[in-house]
Amino acid sequence: MAIGLQADPSEGVAGKKRWAMVVDLRRCIGCMACVAACKAEYDVPLGVWRTTVKVKDLGQFPNTKRQFMPRLCNHCDNPPCVRNCPTEATYKHEEGYVLQRYDRCIACRTCIAACPYNARHVLPSNRTRVKIGGVVDKCTFCEHRVSNGLVPACVQTCLGRSRIFGDLNDPKGEVHRLVSNSSTVTLKPEKGTKPQVYYIQPAQKITDQMSAPPVSYAAKADAEAFYRHNKGRQFFGGVL
Amino acid sequence: MNKHFPMSRRGFLKLGGSTAAVASALGASRLEAMEQELGGKDFSPVTGKLREAVPYTCLVCNIEDGGIAYVEDGRIVKLEGNPDHPGNRGKLCAKGNSGFLHTYDPDRIMTPLLRTGKRGEGKWKRISYDEATTMLAAKLREVIDRSVKANDPAIRNEIVFKWGRNRTGGAIQRLMGAMGSSAMVGHTNICESSKKIGLEPSWGPDIESADFQNTKYALIFGGNVTETAYFHNPNAQRLVDGVVGNKAKLVYFDPRHANTAKIADEWFAPYPGTDGAVALAMANVIMNEKLYDDAFIRTWTNVTPEQLTAHLKSYTPEFAEAESGIAAKDIRRIAREFATTKPATTFSYRGPCKHVYGSYQEAAIHMLNVITGNVEKKGGYCLPRGMGYGQPGPKPAGGKAASILGAPPTYPLAGHQVSTHMPYQLMKGDAKCSVLMTYYDNGAYTYPSSHVWEALLKDEKLIPFYCSFSPYMSENAELADLIIPDTTYLERWDPESMPSDLRPWLGIRQPVIKPLGNTQEWRMTAIQVAAKLDPDGSLGIKQYLNFKDGEEWVRAQFDGIPGLKEDGGFDYLKKNGVWPKYGKIDPVTGQIVDKNGDEVPADYGLHMKELSAAAMEGTTVEANGAIKKGGKTVGVRINGKNHAGFGTGSGKIEIYKEGWKKYGFNPMPVYKRLPSRDKKADELVLITFKVNVHTQSRTASVKYLAELYHKNPAWINPKTAAAKGIADGDLIRVTSTVGYIVTRAHVTEGIHPDVVAISTACGHNSYGRLAQLKMKEKPADYMLGGDADIDNNVWWDDKGVHPNPIIKLSVDPIGGSQGWYDTVVTVSKAQPTDKYGDVKASVEASMKDYEETLRLAYTGDLHKANHKEVDIDWAHLPELKAGGGH
């Protein structure tokens, strides 16, 4: 039995939709179009992100390698954020989206602490255009677009067609095909969250390195500047 | 409904967020289509309402991708690629997605400004467009009156127009032509002009269209396709399709591990300026091992395999290894792979060509495709396909006198000008300027030794009147006497076409919204200035700018396009943004497909197309097969067939360039060792680069992009850094003969040990508060203002340090390109009193660099010494001729 305000897990349940994303890391070129498109779609303020692309360099000259790692909410089939939300502000939609109801959110940050993926943030009140703030926000899988037959904004603009979106339960669909036929990993599967963002091809080692703290001066200086600006109250989800 | 699903129980339909959309989804039946659509419409996440959609053409960089702008309550809220566009196929890059922030930049200039204090003091008076255009017209009139009175057309060249990104479809040239001035200076020599000059005499057009999507082998020299380079977005899509989808091999040459190296099978870091040696050595291997396409060389070029083999003899892989540091065995292996894997293509951009003698390097890389017969093959190295749009008649004849600024006679082959030389030419008195106008141009930031431009613009004797059309307070605009702000690209009219796909297209840029405030697009300003300059038409100027507005002007430009009218003409473009419509995007493959789901094919073998009887009418055929009409080559006869051929004098690919030899340059692709190759062991070569989220100079003010990339520490190899006692993040001094900058070290494995690389994306001393991190200051009263996000949420505190002040002026004497990557520097730990961001640069040192680089020109004393192998009468090189160029 699911706890919290949520639909039952629907991964692999016939007759039900289970929206999911495949990120084919072979095709990601780190162009950041997804990050910019997402910012625009939701008027996402500076300092918070619904999606990012992490960058890491590995190896020694001249055998240098670069790895990109797009990150977003995993829209878990068993989401700990929903279980932990005291006000039922966050909930899991029947089709798999994990969504946020701003008017019930008390910004207690319990969901932020519960999320193993740092996919949530407190939305600043000073925004360019949209007048909602002071609540927790997150990626919605662009539910407002998907329900109108479109892919999410990040998928729409993905230059490498690295991000692929669809109904995992549709056996004819591309997402189903890719997850069935490719070697995929999810992030922190040991947490039992059943993440619904599937990465093609990385060694688990790479995904672990991607979430390691920054090492270069350039990255650390950004993180320090971020924490100074936010007085330590926000998690830095930027592109490091 | 699932019993746990709370929709009805909780009744949150009336709550905020995206509930309206949720409701409609639940009410809707399952979609019939198997996959979600990729785009073409957009909904508000807050209200669920369908957003108004207006097609446009992007202009954040120069690739001109097609877009759809989504408008909510009169405000542009989202940009998306136009799914009907064959080039970008519905997608935009990070810059394109962020482009609407140019429109809503709180520091955007919203009214014409007249300087009230001293130049550069920052004191401005707001005036109307009417007052501003009257003032500019009077300044221009003064010059024209003097020209008329003295009956000297050369005086009109004192009206100087300097542009950067000019996508006006010839509007600026039309205005200048109408006024009779030839002093038009584009920016192409700080961009890729020696690439153009390496290619144009070789096969006609100035760029290649590498068919990455269908290739099996791609060899890229210094063209960072997945981040920047020409056709960044379209080419990046196709390169990923080729490398991942089509299992093509990608070999990438770049002294810096750019993101393109990430998807490459092999990355090589050549010593800067040695790509040509590598390419020539590969050609040597291909010729010696008889891996070349004999028939193609004999049929379609002006050389024979025997001549090529002899010419390439000294360019052994061992020679190239000594120059480039790339192992001879790798050069051999890759040459063999390239020649034997079909189809294959090269691509190059600003790496090889942006050196002194960069034209040779480009021609050498081009030749690899020719000798392997990959030209115009599916998956190969193709001619670019574009569509023309002219200016409507009557067209002005243009200036009667040649301008030294517009076409320096010392660079007769540099058909894309030598704009770097403009300040020096004016300072030395070689040319005179009475009125300077600049458009999308920021020389005091974007040029090598940028301080020289600052010095020029500050000098009221050399520049008595300066009018900038910039909508932002740039390093240049701050030094203007008058600013007549243009609108942003989402508020103006232009025709567009770019060869970003093998299927040609024509696009439109149109106002997505009415220009903000009372701002007006540049076309309108030009129309008003012409009307005030020549109110009764007696000067013969007004007749050429007699348009009601920008729309009427651009409509007239589209009127002459064959076939467009039948599809609905100008109104079709306004509605759809791009023409023709080739098909529909397949949501799974991202390709443009027809009704049956098959990819819409491109045409290949353009040079093979046979000329019709009508096209042959009135032509003559020369001994070498060239088919001539009115003095121009229109095709080539081969084995009795009349082919379209290539855009050269012979109609064939001219690996041997007689036009170069005339001036003492080598007619064949050669490698010239540069002084930077002989630097001292402890010195480094300074290179610059663009990053994926920025243009050269205009995007540090765009918040989404600035958040992604805002500081530009100098890339330095760990071994090099260790030898100099430099640790990651250390304050360092980078010193050239021009001066020094104080920046920080980014110690990384992604850079050649002899190189230091600094991005040009940031380090502004102008361009609004965000670019300078001065958010505590209030926006000036003439600015748009009003972005609480920028005022409160900017978290980064480092704006970067720009490298241009210490980069030496030094140009390719053939193509006229700035040698951006030829500056030798020392890098050391900063001195105790140094502060981050310190810049010291000497105008005197740059003046010496100017004199020095003139010595390489065909008239200079180093020219012959560098071309001893060229067998011509050195005592009788062609005379200097004003209005050179081709």
In DSSP terms (H or I, runs of 4 or more residues), the helix count of chain B works out at 30
Runs of chain A with pLDDT <50, length 5+?
Answer: none
Strand content of chain B: 5-15%
Mind summarizing the main beta sheet of chain B?
7 strands, mixed
Helix-strand makeup class of chain A:
alpha+beta
Give the helix level of chain A as a range of percent.
10-25%
Task: Please count the helical segments of chain A.
Answer: 8
Number of strands of chain A: 10
The ordered string of helix (H) and strand (E) elements of chain A is EHEEHEEHEEHHEHEEHH
Quick structural gist:
The complex is a heterodimer of chains A (240) and B (886). Chain A is of the alpha+beta class and 240 residues long.
Q: Would you spell out the secondary-structure blueprint of this structure?
A:
The complex is a heterodimer of chains A (240) and B (886).
Chain A: E1 19-24, H1 33-42, E2 51-58, E3 65-72, H2 80-84, E4 90-92, E5 98-100, H3 110-114, E6 120-122, E7 136-138, H4 143-146, H5 153-157, E8 163-167, H6 174-181, E9 184-185, E10 197-200, H7 204-210, H8 217-230
Parallel strand pairs in A: 1-10
Antiparallel strand pairs in A: 1-8, 2-3, 4-5, 6-7, 9-10
Chain B: H1 7-11, H2 19-27, E1 52-57, E2 66-72, E3 75-81, H3 94-97, H4 100-103, E4 113-115, E5 124-126, H5 129-150, E6 159-163, H6 171-179, E7 184-185, H7 193-203, E8 209-210, E9 217-221, H8 232-245, E10 249-253, H9 260-263, E11 266-268, H10 275-288, H11 294-300, H12 305-312, H13 317-324, H14 328-340, E12 344-348, H15 350-353, H16 358-371, E13 381-382, H17 422-427, E14 435-439, H18 443-446, H19 450-458, E15 466-468, E16 482-483, E17 494-496, E18 506-509, H20 522-533, H21 550-559, H22 569-576, E19 578-579, E20 584-585, E21 592-593, H23 613-616, E22 620-621, E23 626-629, E24 632-638, E25 641-643, H24 658-661, E26 684-689, H25 703-708, E27 714-716, H26 718-723, E28 731-735, E29 739-747, E30 755-759, H27 768-772, H28 788-793, E31 823-829, E32 839-841, H29 843-854, H30 861-866
Parallel strand pairs in B: 6-7, 6-14, 9-10, 9-12, 10-11, 14-15, 15-16, 26-30, 27-29
Antiparallel strand pairs in B: 1-2, 2-3, 4-5, 4-16, 8-13, 17-18, 18-19, 20-21, 22-23, 23-24, 24-25, 26-31, 27-30, 28-29, 28-31, 29-32
